[in-house]
């Protein structure tokens, strides 16, 4: 398995699902030994507070198992909700995929 496992959610991140697919998929990757996870927001159109809660759950699980979580390509509304909730500083957020690739190369070289 490569050091980085990439997830590309689409549409709305959040809603009312108690155990959404993104949480299930990232948890499975962590269980399989992923050392780093990237959630690429290129195709995410909206993030609500439930979506931020999902990201926090993923982050806590990743940290528990020694996996690093990266986020990239968040649109301005997603960044704003993260900032309003006060969690933007706890995530490793990058502007684009290339920036994450460089960070991963440095971390795992």
TrEMBL record:
InterPro entries: STAS_dom, STAS_dom_sf. PANTHER family: ANTI-SIGMA FACTOR ANTAGONIST TM_1081-RELATED (PTHR33495:SF2), ANTI-SIGMA FACTOR ANTAGONIST TM_1081-RELATED-RELATED (PTHR33495). GO terms for molecular function: anti-sigma factor antagonist activity. The gene is rsbV_1. The lineage of its organism: Bacteria, Bacillati, Cyanobacteriota, Cyanophyceae, Acaryochloridales. It comes from the Bacteria. Residues 1-107 form the STAS domain. Pfam families: STAS (PF01740). This is Anti-sigma-B factor antagonist.
